[in-house]
Amino acid sequence: MTKVSYVFFALIIAAGMLCCGCTTTTMPEDPAATRTITDMVGNQITIPAEGATFAVFGGPISQVPYLLGANDSVIAVTKGPQLMEMMQEMDPGIIDKPAPRTTNGNVNIEELLVTNPDCVIAFDVDGEIVESHTNIPVIYLSGTMSDGFDEMRREIAFMGEVFGKPDRAQAYIDYLNETLEFLRERTANIPEDERVTVFLGEGVSHLQTLGGDTFFTEWTAAAGCRNAVATIETTHGQQEGIHTGINEISMEQVLAADPDIIIIDTGSPAELKNDSRWKELSAVKEGRVYKQPTGLFLWSRPSAESAVLYPVWLAYKAYPDRFEDVPLTDRVKDFYAEIFGFTLTDEQAQKVIDGTYGSVTFGQVKQLG
């Protein structure tokens, strides 16, 4: 064999080896591949690297998979958000998903086992129930009613990691930051003693409220306002656990605070005008009693939705002359379009603002099971 022939033969062998190498790198990935996540309390959880399915337990957190564009991977939900009118408009299919979790600490284990997600995303009480009755891994969140904007950013960033959508998570965080800066610029020059005081009165009595140790104080401050009962000591009852901070005060304490604005989540503002106790308050006399907005979930909870829109809505109510250039309906529509990809009509945006969207109370959720 000539020298040229040897060289030619060697080249053929080398080419064959290279081709074999090429085919090796295009082999499909191991379908059993997994990834490990460190949750918000420090536990490590292993889930499928691709195609993982989730159960999401918690009212406020239920909207996060939607803003991440990852809700198709959620196969079990929480009853409260499932029953919200606006949520059903955004995702008609949610009503058909199993809802084994109703309220905090109420989980239908049999329904969860039938659904069989790869993992459950939950807070402490629900997570402990799941772990004690099943072998389904739990990704723990760490939020409470005391959490403000920093914890919201942390929670959204973490959920972006869980669902493999860090860019969508960052887009929300950027939107939140830009909104807070917009409000700060519009309200920064208001003297502290001239800032509008706000009282949130929940429930039929309107005496359940959120004190100074809750997210609501941060939400009101972002709007250029002050929580009227931030320093009032609870006298008539205090909830613990995940709902720590929802306290009941006396009518005398409300009268002493005499807030500039009152927000209610039950009944109508007109009812307070006819109540011998409430009609003496400045907010009632001046027509500054408002129904709390509702959207994808209750705004009296720390959620991605309320963190952005509650301060905006409140700032517009407190200082309308400072926001005349941008209609509130436009800001509401922009938020849902940019963050959730959900286009609202003017009528839908107004329903959010007026608090007339069909909502659900926690008592109703418990009755429905």
Question: What features would you describe in this structure?
Answer:
With 369 residues, the chain is α/β, with parallel strands linked by helices. The chain has two domains: 37-148, Rossmann fold; 191-354, Rossmann fold. The protein has helices at residues 3-25, 64-67, 79-82, 85-90, 109-115, 124-133, 149-162, 166-187, 215-222, 251-257, 269-273, 282-285, 304-318, 328-340, 346-354, 362-368; strands spanning 34-38, 44-48, 54-56, 74-76, 119-122, 138-140, 197-201, 208-210, 226-227, 246-248, 261-264, 289-291. The strands form four sheets. A four-stranded parallel beta sheet has the order 4-3-5-6, covered by helices on one side. Strands 9-7-11-12 form a four-stranded parallel beta sheet. α8 runs parallel beside α13 (304-318). The longest helix is centred in the N-terminal third of the chain and has 23 residues, at 3-25. The model is unreliable at 1-28, 235-244 and 365-369 (pLDDT under 50). It comes from Methanoculleus thermophilus. InterPro entries: ABC_Transporter_SBP, ABC_transptr_periplasmic_BD.
